[in-house]
């Protein structure tokens, strides 16, 4: 009686309308996609034990089946509230929705693969997040990278800051992007990222400075932030990064350092000038008649000789008007 169902391309199986939920029939698509038969898995519970690894999900589905049986039957179509993650015949995991048509003596269950729909939703979410970052960081370079280190996206601003088109930048290897010292920092972060992903830990965000290579052979410093993006199921999706050009900031820092060095040199020069200044202070013993000054050793020096010895002043000799009239009256 189920012959017509065997050629339907969607995986189908038929359940008995009782608490045991016996598998009465599975079509060819079910066997090819998910494996098994009513002989191998005679009841819904047996099949779920093989196909659904999470115990809470199995219990929820069986509880839902009990609720279906408690309602009026024939002609009603039910759908499992959430998609189940099933293990297919190849051992891969698939997100599938169960649609159930309750008939007079049995229930027809169709398995609709929603994995592609979920992948599209995930790609849409990543795209929206990427474009949001682009809008907020128009001058910065936005990029994404897979876990193997391959670049999957570079924003057009890369051509402005490095001289490479996005297509050229996506084909570059790490040694064509970063200087050796920055490569070492990047590889260390990726080793930690890979170890976290393998261990099921949430990877850490990176923030640091990288020195990038330009198409003309020059280099420049950048501020890099890399954010691990996780998929809805908790697996690693991609590394989303923003690279900000620090050339203007570095130039300002160099200018500030030069100005500080110049100021420091000026301070040193002023201090030395102060050390070189000689001053006279205190009481000076001077002769009331000849105007000689007694020095520290007790000898009397001419006033100009004393001043030259104790300061940086120098004398030039001239003749004042009074002395000229006194000594040269004619």
Please characterize this protein's 3D structure.
Strand 10 and strand 11 form a beta hairpin. The chain has helices at 28-34, 44-51, 55-69, 115-136, 158-162, 166-170, 180-199, 247-276, 303-310, 321-327, and strands at residues 12-16, 23-26, 76-79, 84-87, 93-102, 106-113, 141-145, 151-154, 206-213, 219-230, 236-245, 293-294, 300-301. By secondary structure, it is an alpha+beta fold. 38% of the residues lie in helices and 24% in strands. It has 10 helices and 13 strands.
CATH level-4 homologous superfamily of the largest domain? PAS domain
How many helices? 10
Residues in β-strands, percent = 15-25%
CATH class group of the largest domain: Alpha Beta
Quaternary arrangement of the chains shown? Answer: single chain
* CATH domain topology of the largest domain: Beta-Lactamase
The rounded Rg comes to: 45 Å
- Overall residue-averaged pLDDT value: 83
First-to-last CA distance:
157 Å
Indicate the CATH architecture of the largest domain: 2-Layer Sandwich
Order of SSEs, N→C? Answer: EEHHHEEEEHEEHHHEEEHEEHH
Specify the structural class.
alpha+beta
Which descriptor suits the 3D outline?
A: rod-shaped
Unreliable parts: none
Q: What fraction, in percent, of the residue positions are helical? A: 25-40%
Main sheet makeup: 6 strands, antiparallel
What's the number of domains? 4
Tell me the total number of β-strands. Answer: 13
């Amino acid at each position: 009686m189920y012959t017509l169902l065997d050629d339907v391309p969607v995986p189908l199986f038929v359940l008995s309308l009782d608490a045991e939920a016996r598998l009465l029939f599975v079509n060819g698509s079910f066997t090819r996609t998910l494996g098994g038969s009513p002989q191998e898995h005679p009841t819904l519970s047996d099949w779920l034990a093989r196909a659904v690894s999470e115990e809470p999900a199995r219990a929820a589905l069986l509880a839902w089946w009990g609720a279906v049986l408690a309602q009026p039957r024939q002609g009603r179509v039910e759908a499992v509230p959430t998609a189940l993650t099933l293990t297919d015949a190849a051992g891969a995991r698939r997100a599938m929705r169960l649609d159930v048509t309750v008939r007079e003596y049995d229930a027809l269950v169709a398995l609709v693969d929603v994995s592609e729909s979920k992948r599209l939703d995930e790609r849409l979410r990543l795209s929206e997040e990427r474009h949001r970052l682009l809008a907020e960081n128009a001058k910065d370079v936005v990029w994404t990278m897979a876990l193997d280190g391959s670049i999957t996206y570079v924003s057009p601003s890369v051509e402005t800051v490095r001289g490479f088109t996005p297509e050229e930048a996506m084909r570059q290897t790490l040694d064509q992007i970063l200087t050796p010292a920055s490569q070492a920092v990047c590889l260390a972060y990726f080793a930690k990222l890979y170890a976290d992903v393998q261990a099921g830990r949430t990877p850490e965000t990176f923030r640091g400075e990288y020195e990038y290579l330009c198409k003309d052979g020059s280099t420049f410093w950048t501020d890099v932030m890399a954010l691990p993006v996780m998929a809805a199921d908790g697996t690693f999706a991609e590394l989303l990064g923003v690279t900000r050009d620090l050339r203007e900031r570095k130039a300002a820092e160099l200018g500030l350092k030069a100005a500080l060095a110049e100021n420091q040199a000026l301070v040193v020069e002023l201090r030395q000038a102060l050390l070189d200044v000689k001053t006279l202070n205190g009481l000076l013993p001077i002769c009331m008649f000849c105007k000689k000054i007694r020095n520290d050793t007790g000898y009397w020096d001419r006033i100009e000789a004393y001043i030259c010895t104790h300061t940086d002043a120098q004398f030039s000799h001239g003749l004042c008007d009074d002395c000229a009239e006194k000594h040269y009256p004619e």
